[in-house]
Design goal:
Largest sheet: 3 strands, antiparallel
Number of domains: 2
Structural class: alpha+beta
CATH topology of the largest domain: Cytochrome Bc1 Complex, Chain D, domain 2
Radius of gyration: 27 Å
Strand content: 5-15%
Distance between the termini: 110 Å
Number of helices: 9
CATH class of the largest domain: Mainly Alpha
Mean pLDDT: 87
Length: 297
Amino acid sequence: MNFGPLIFLGVFFTMACSWFGMIVVPQLQIGGQQPVKLEATGQMYPLPRAGLAQQGAAVYRANGCAACHSQQVRQGPPVFDVKLNDLGTNAAQVADIARKINHAAGAPLPGKNIWRTPVKKDADAAAKRLTDAGAKAAVVIVPTGADIERGWGARVSVAQDYLYDQPLMLGSRRIGPDLANIGARKPGADWQLWHLYNPRLITDGSFMPAYRFLFNEVPRRKDAPPALGALDKTLVAKTFPEPAGETVTDIVPTAEAVALVAYLASLNPDAPLFEAPAPVPPPPAAPATNTPAAVKP
C-alpha cells in the first residue's frame, strides 16, 4: 500500500496547525487593536509619536540601542489595597470594622488604604463589609515586581503600548536599564544630551559607549559668545575637561542627537489600561492662598 499521500497530508496538516496557531490566532487577538479612550482623562491611548520622535526612533534603531536596552516592563503578582473613600454616616461602626480587618491600623481616614492583601477575593470581601456599613470603599490593584520597584514603569507593558511602533524594539538584554518610561524618569533634554555625549560625565562607571559622533565640537575664543545650541557646561562643570589657553570647545548636538532625545522623551507608556491597571495618582493639592483664616469670636 502506498502511504505517501497519507504522510504528505499528515505533514501538511501539522504545518497548517502550527501556522494557524502562531500566525492567525495572534493576529486575531492583537492584530486589530485600536486606540482606547482612557477613563481618567478622556484622551485616546496611545497617540502616534510626533515627527521628530519618529525620526529619533530611526536613530535609536540605526545605532543598535535595542541591543543593550529593553523597552518592556516586567511585573510580578499584583497585590490589592482596600481603600476607604468615605466613612459615611456610621463612622463608629466603620472604624470598628476597619480595625477588625487590619488589627494594626489606627483610626481609619477617608482616602487612605485600610488593608493590603495578595488575594483578590479577600480584598473584595473586606470592601463589601465596609460598604455594607455605609462607607464608600474600593479595591485598588497595585502592580509589584522588581522593575516597578526600580521605577522603570508603573505597570506591566502590554501590546497596546506598541500600537504605533514599527518595527518593535523591545530588546532582550539589559546591559543598560530598561527605557520603557525613560521619558518620565529623565525628562530633561540637557541630561540626555550630555549622557549621549559622554555617559561617564553623568553616571560614574557607566558601560554605555560615548556617542560623540552625534555632536559637533566647535572651537571658539573664551571671550566669544557660545555657539548656537551649545550644551550648558555648568551642568557638568566639575568633571568636564576644559582645554588650557584662550580657546574653548562648544558641544553642539546634531539633528540626529536632538531627534534621538525627542524619541527618548516620548517613551512613557504608564497610562492605566483595563488589561494593565496602574495606581492612579492622587489629584493635585489645591493651591495655597494668602487669604487669612476667619477669626473666631
